Amino acid sequence: MKNISILGCGWLGFPLAKAVLEKGIRVNGSTTSPDKIAILEKFGIHPFVITLEADRISGAIEDFLQGSTILIIDIPPKLRGINKENFVGKIETLIPFIEKSNIENVLFISSTSVYGEDNDQVTEETVLNPDSEGGKQLAIVEGVLKGNSHFKTTVLRFGGLIGEDRNPIQFLAGRESLENPDAPINLIHQTDCIGIILRIIENNSWGETYNAAAPAHPSREAYYTQKAVELNLVPPRFNHDKPSVGKTILGDKLVEKLNYTFTITNL
Question: Sheet of 68-73: strands edge to edge?
Answer without folding.
Answer: 46-49, 27-31, 3-7, 68-73, 105-111, 152-158, 209-212
